[in-house]
Structure formats: structure tokens, C-alpha cells
Amino acid sequence: MECLVEKEDLLRCLYLVQGVVEKRSSLPILAHVLIESAQEITSLGATDLEIGIRQQCKSTVKKNGAATTDARKLYEIIRELPPERVSLRASGNGWLDVSCGKSRFRLASLDPKEFPAVVPAEQPAGTPPPVTASLAAKTLREMVEKTLFATSPDETRLQLSGVYLEAQKEGKLRMVASDGHRLALIERETTIADPSTWPRTILPRKGLIEVRKLLEKSEEEITLSLQGSTIILKKESTELSMRLVEGEFPDYKQVIPTEKKHTITFSREDFLSALRRLLVLTTERSRGIKLQTEKDRMEISVNTPDVGEGVEEIGVSHEEGNITIGFNGRYLTEALAVMEEGQNVTLYLKDEVSPGLLRVVGDEDFSYVIMPMRIL
After folding, report:
1. What CA–CA distance (Å, rounded) separates 166 from 202?
2. Which of 84, 119, 184, 335 measures 20 to 30 Å from 145, CA to CA?
3. What are the φ and ψ backbone dihedral angles of 63, each rounded to 5 degrees?
4. 298 CB burial (10 A radius; 0-12, 13-18, 19+)
């Protein structure tokens, strides 16, 4: 294998594979990137056996073939090279030669034939065709941003460590995430030939982190394809595959409040700024924030022993009687942070001990449910 690739193209591809590369595996080859060159195309692939990514970039191919090398070391070398074409050449004795201008490097390479499949091969003839959906990259990026933060970091709770994905009858895709204390739900328009054929699935957290990175500043159309226990995202010259999380997602619909006695509307910026200032006076063990509302104002306060106390006040629209309720301030802040700037937000409450429901005014397809806290 021997090829010439523009430094910026190579660097972009290597940057995107870093999150997939397995750094602590007992299999050394999983820390490598697979480099394949043929027909004026050089592709880079990486996998941790659960998530795989393959990207193509234009190149001048002098000799078809494949090689592997340590993904992190190659990325760090390419990043520091001058903005010129980079030569990659596999020598037959287990080395990859990298050169650019007056710089020369030789990196250890493993047998590319031993590299695991990066993206699952096409399904054999006779098996059911994959189920596909198409949507704008910015739409999927928004859906991931507005749900990923609410997943559980506890890997032992597999069903809550990922994001639930299902199709609605009207052709929308719905994503739901919950860690047991809060829940984020978003629906957006997509193109699905037959929504009834789309199975309910749970997408892994690590894979969605890579999806978010991949779709950064991207505007084109993308395709999601479900093949058995794997979902594949295709975007121009990039393919990313994820093995679905096994198990059933809890019945999230029971958690979403239906009774809304109190409707409190306020500016996202006013509430978020006040929360951020008050969170300075909280600790990791105690993030409690107390909300007290009247007709046109809401008092937000925190009182942490041995740290301090603080009070903020913002203007609100609230037609019902007064109410006092406590929430985890960090959970509120993280939900507001993924909402667009300049929006008004409505908090729906039943009483002091029932979950609260946050929605952006004018967007009924994004909901955030948060469990209350007892604040002394």
C-alpha cells in the first residue's frame, strides 16, 4: 500500500476515529486504525467491536493495499506536520512509513488481515432488508444533544445508559433518555417508508457521542439503517455502525405528567443565569434549589450548610396560586443549556411532590421531566 493524502483530509479522518479506538483492550489491534487504499480512495477505519467507523478521502494511490498503525500516535504526528501532502507507505516487514516534506517517520504495523470488520457487511440474500430512515444531519444532531445528557452514567443499568429510539405513526422519530431522576423526550420529522416496520431500539451512549462529533457543523442529509442488532449511519463518505443495547426501555409514558395545575413561563436566559450563580453555593452531594412562585415573580434560592446561601428573583407569568418546590439545580441547568437562546420556557407543575415538566414555548415536541427534591 502506498498513497498520497492532503494533510487536512487525513487529519479530519483521524480526529473522528479517536473516540472509537479502544485504548485499554487486551487486543492490541483495536488501538490501531485500518488504512486501505484503492482506486484513488483511501479509507480509514476503527472499531472497539461495539462501534465502528469508516471514512473515505480522495488520494493519489500508487499501490493498492492495506496497513494498520497506532491511531493515537499517527494522529499526533499528522497534527504537527506542515500543510502539505502526506505519504503513507506500508513496507513488507511490519512497518508504516509516513513522510511529509522533510519529515520522516516509521510506525509499527500489525497484519491488516487480523483487523475486525469495521462496519457489518451486506446481509446475505434471503434475509429481510434493512429498515431505513432519512433526515437532516442538523435534526439528528439536535435530537442527540437534547437527550444524551439525560442518560444514566451507570453502565450496569444498560437500558438507561443509552437513548431509546422509536418511530411514530405520523413518520416522526422519537428519542427518549432517562437516568431515573429525569427524562428528556424529543420528536422530529423524518422520512420513513413504513414506520410500523421500525423496531424499538436503544442506542449506546458511546456511539451517540461519536454521532454528535461526526455531525458537528454538518448540513447534509443522512441515512439510518437498522440491520439486525446493528444500526448504521451513513453520511457522504462516512459510515458509523453501533451495536444496539440489549433489553427493554422502561415505560417512560407513565412518567410524563398529564395534570398541569400550575403553568409558569419565564425567559430561558434569566432562569439559567440565576441557576448558574446559585449553583456556586452547592456541593456535589447537595444540588438542591428551591423555587417559590407568585403571580409575576419567582424566587430561586439555595441554602447549603458550611457553604452559604443565595437568593435570585426573576419575572414570570403564573396565573394560579403560589407554589414552593425543590429540584436538583444541575438537572435544571443541563436541560436549559440544550435549549435555543432567546426562548421562553414553561414549567408545568401539579403540586409540590409531583414531577415537573419543562417545555420550550412553541415546541411541544421537546419535553423534559424532572423529579422534585425535598428542600428543608
Report:
1. 9
2. 119
3. -155, 125
4. buried
Cβ contacts of residue 80 below 8 Å, gap of 6+? none
Q: Which amino acid is at 156?
A: T
Report whether pLDDT(228) > 90. no
213: which residues sit within 8 A by CB, 6+ positions away?
Answer: 16, 19
Q: What is the largest CA-CA distance in the chain?
A: 79
Q: What's the chain's average pLDDT?
A: 92
Asked if the domains 2-114 and 256-370 are classified in one and the same CATH topology, the answer is yes
Task: Yes or no: say if 225 and 130 are a contact pair by the CB < 8 Å rule.
Answer: yes
pLDDT one-digit tens code per residue, 279-334: 999 988 888 999 999 889 999 999 988 889 999 999 999 977 899 999 999 999 99
Range 257-261 contact pairs with CB under 8 angstroms and sequence separation of 24 or more: 257/348, 257/350, 257/354, 257/355, 257/356, 257/357, 257/369, 259/350, 259/354, 260/348, 260/349, 260/350, 260/357, 261/320, 261/349, 261/350, 261/351
How far apart, in whole angstroms, are the C-alpha atoms of residue 361 and residue 30? 46
Architecture of the domain spanning 2-114: Roll (3.10)
Does residue 307 contact residue 282 with C-beta atoms inside 8 Å?
yes
- Could you tell me the fold of the domain covering 131-252? DNA Polymerase III; Chain A, domain 2 (3.10.150)
Give the C-alpha separation, 82 to 352, whole Å. Answer: 61
pTM of the model: 0.90
Least confident window among 154-158, 292-296, 370-374:
154-158
The proportion of the chain whose per-residue pLDDT surpasses 70, expressed as a percent, equals 98
Q: Where are the domains of the chain?
A: 2-114, 131-252, 256-370
To which CATH superfamily is domain 256-370 assigned? Answer: DNA Polymerase III, subunit A, domain 2 (3.10.150.10)
Residue at grid coordinates 458537528: 216
What does the pLDDT look like over 197-218, one tens digit per residue? 888 899 999 999 999 999 987 8
